[in-house]
Design a protein that fits this description.
Number of helices: 8
Number of strands: 14
Radius of gyration: 18 Å
Structural class: alpha/beta
Mean pLDDT: 94
Helix content: 25-40%
Shape: globular
Strand order of the largest sheet: 4-1-9-10-11-12-13-14
Strand content: 15-25%
């Protein structure tokens, strides 16, 4: 039994200031669900992760990182016939980054309904999914919705992060339809301010809606009552996937039965650690590093 079970794709990331000229580049891993999983594990929660990885070096590195963070990889699948997805990212002006994704046909996009472990999901306290994974392929769409149905039928709390990635959808209308369907299944929905319009028809039925607003902080509306908190003052190094760090902090406090205001504060605190690091997950804090 785990506190949180999540599923998704982990990508290899190659980053530099200017890839066509730099003689050195930075290699890392990235994924919204990876950030959530690592963040929760470092805060002392048990986490299970499901995904398909290649048997290439990125896939091996992914398994090594997950296991090193104490995350249960017992349900991970190794695909020997597909490669890992890759992101090439270069930083041009200040903190503005340009990224190119190579993930079509990747091992992660082949995750299917048959890979989804019913018992692991039904015994978890929370199932966390994002709007990224179902957009990868028809296989992953079915896998995510199957996992959600298993969780709902078992009374497991379903956490959904909208995580709209425009390049994964054929059109805005397709994204709106797909993300609204996923959002409607949530017990806790996470969205940034810009994504709210995509899922607005699902919002009215939600018990818990959490909205992040960048430098303006975040809010949570729980059972009709709204709570707000300010962003933490921090020098930003890289804000990529900071939403996953916020989700990890918020869900951690939710698991601790904390008040909604305290959930927001922990989410903001964990996000502050994330943006102060060049990695989406390496700088995430342990519990004893959190502010009182």
């Amino acid at each position: 039994m785990s506190d949180v079970f999540t599923l998704g794709e982990v990508l290899g990331v190659i980053s530099a200031e200017r890839l066509r000229h730099d003689m050195t580049a930075r290699l890392d891993l990235e994924g919204a669900e990876l950030t959530v999983a690592v963040g929760l594990a470092r805060l002392g929660h048990s986490v299970g992760f499901l995904g398909r990885v290649s048997d290439d070096e990125i896939g091996v590195r992914t398994l090594t990182v997950l296991r090193g963070e104490g995350i249960d990889t017992g349900h991970m699948r190794v695909d020997e016939t597909a490669s890992s997805g890759i992101v090439l990212r270069q930083r041009r002006i200040g903190r503005v980054a340009h990224a190119v994704n190579y993930r079509d046909g990747s091992a992660g996009s082949r995750l299917s309904t048959g890979d989804v472990p019913a018992e692991a999901i039904q015994s978890a306290r929370i199932l966390h999914v994002t709007g990224i994974t179902p957009a990868l392929s028809g296989f992953t769409w079915s896998a995510v919705h199957h996992a959600v149905k298993l969780a709902k039928d078992a009374g497991v709390l379903v956490s959904v992060d909208v995580n709209h990635r425009a390049y994964l959808w054929e059109s805005v209308e397709e994204a709106r339809e797909g993300l609204t369907e996923l959002a409607a299944s949530a017990d806790v929905l996470f969205s940034n301010q810009d994504e709210l319009g995509l899922v607005e028809t699902a919002i009215g039925s939600l018990r818990e809606l959490v909205v992040t607003r960048g430098s303006k902080g975040a809010s949570a509306t729980v059972d009709g009552f709204r709570y707000d908190t300010q962003a933490a003052p921090v020098t930003v190094v890289d804000s990529t996937e900071v939403g996953g760090a916020f989700v990890a902090g918020y869900l951690s406090a939710l698991l601790d039965d904390s008040h909604p205001s305290d959930r927001l504060k922990r989410g903001i605190a964990v996000a502050a650690f994330a943006v102060a690091s060049a990695s989406t997950w390496q700088g995430l804090p342990n519990r004893d590093e959190l502010p009182p």
